[in-house]
Amino acid sequence: MTGFSEFSRRSLDDREGFWSEQARLIDWKTPPVQVLDYSNPPFARWFVGGTTNLCHNAVDRHLKDRADQAALIFVSTETNEETTYTFRQLHAEVQRMAAALKDLGVQKGDRVLIYMPMIAEAAFAMLACTRIGALHSVVFGGFASVSLASRIDDATPKVIVSADAGSRSGKVVEYKPLLDAAIDLANHKPTAVLLVDRKLAAMKIVAGRDQLWGDLRQKHLNSTVECEWVDATHPSYTLYTSGTTGKPKGVQRDTGGYAVALAASMKHIFCAPLQGASGPAGETYFCTSDIGWVVGHSYIIYGPLIAGMATIMYEGLPTRPDAGVWWSLVEKYKVTVMFSAPTAVRVLKKQDPAFLKKYDLSSLRALFLAGEPLDEPTARWISESLGVPIIDNYWQTESGWPILTIANGVEKAPSKFGSPGVPMYGYDVKLIDENTGDELEGPDQKGVVAIEGPMPPGFMQTVWRDDARFVSTYWKSIPGKLVYNTFDWGVRDKDGYFFILGRTDDVINVAGHRLGTREIEESISSHPNVAEVAVVGVADALKGQVAMAFVVPKNAAVVADAAGALKLEGEIMKQVDGQLGAVARPARVRFVTVLPKTRSGKLLRRAIQAVCEGRDAGDLTTIEDPTALQQIRDVVAR
Ligand code: PRX
After folding, report:
1. pTM for the full model?
2. Which of 29, 119, 191, 233 could form a disulfide with 229 if both were Cys (CB 3.0 to 4.6 A apart)?
């Protein structure tokens, strides 16, 4: 067997040969005519001429060999439900949902926005969309009406699928009122809203628009809906993610490339430790993310199902009813691969370690962690507790699957604490000098992590309805080069291992959730007593980062005493909760009379962040008012 470096080199030197082999991992209705069309860089078109279907690859194709095997295991420790759907049952539910969507007028190419808690119906809805060639756009359930409204206006969905409520820590979190408010705010109006009634909260039904899933499911109990064979390049979904501006970007993904990329990643990366003759089919995968994020799309829904595995969909906290709940699921369902985020592990680390000893975890082969930097103490603790490889992996909503990791399915590579690993096959990763655009070839130099095109299958095709933004944001931000910018700082050591040092833009990472500080600033600015605001991400021992807001009030008198400041801080937090969702709420709001800016009026966010973290604020020759930073220092110290 050849080593990983050869495997990886071939993926770049002979892209078409490499990926045409990987393409055999999925079913095609018609095989591709051309593996890669890169005639119009940076737009890469994979598997041109081929037709396939994501839902077919995730569900239907397994009916032949494993119809009665578990496919989707829904577990809610919020409502104490636990339901296993076999591939046959999943197939039936997805067809019912597909028939319901068609009934509501959804056709190939239409968008369906999914705003749902972690319930099985959300998976049915996603799979039903790809089954009929409609694009799903899942919006994280933790977002509130203003975030939701901007996504409704961008995606212009024909139908929205939602539910009465979710539940968090035993408390009902209503979705329907937020959805109604969002539809009121949005310019675009969906023709129908399909609602799952969990009977957690009463719903105000809008006549003529709102439909109940229970009714339509009954109507279509025996409906069959065949898969719509779509071109490999047909978009399967859009997923919004934050960047430098306040307006989220709709990351658009194709169908054939994504299916191949996921199938290949399941084989080479995620299931490498358990590659038997029959592959991982029949085993159980447990990814603790949420369907509202890219990890949920790729590794709760599509990846495991494409690989013929059972996938666990979990609603609840890792610590309720106690900190052993995830491990009890590993034991009960004989989970072989788990995928989570460092924050979740840090939460568990604070609990009694006896919970890890209480269950039989012998089925588990590896724990993958992604979404934020994995610190050494956390990695060591979980690795010693579980006794299985802990595999850090670095990627983005844009990429859809890991860019850097050490699991490669070809040979065992040693891990290094603090590093997610080396570039995966298909990725030509570079480090670039931010100012000159030159490539940094030597070891231990800090630069921007960039990727040379063409991007491998599975990578975003474009920004939804905005090719120009795709090119200008991602491909033209490094001077003199057409190269993909990850907006992460990185360093590569002499062995080729990368270390990720944080974002170069205004994106922050709170508990593995990617948030834009500009969006939070816009929400805070709309408070009547806010004149100016700066939001920065500050290091936090548990969540990785938290948002800190510095506000110049219009009327300084209201924050003259501690009680007044506390009141305005509370109002601002409540406003962010209501508009964007509690996930975006700043941990602290502090009041100042002036913000640190350059003489040309640009906010010195990096300097503010440095001061908050007790670091040197760097070059301040351009600052307009040097007392501004002192004020930040003072209010932070308080
Ligand atoms: O800054 C990097 C960080 O999360 C960003 C991408 O977030 P998102 O689009 O939500 O996709 C998450 C997919 C796992 C990256 O630009 N990030 C992600 N993984 C890691 C990471 N930072 C350090 N180490 C990681 N393993």
Report:
1. 0.96
2. 29
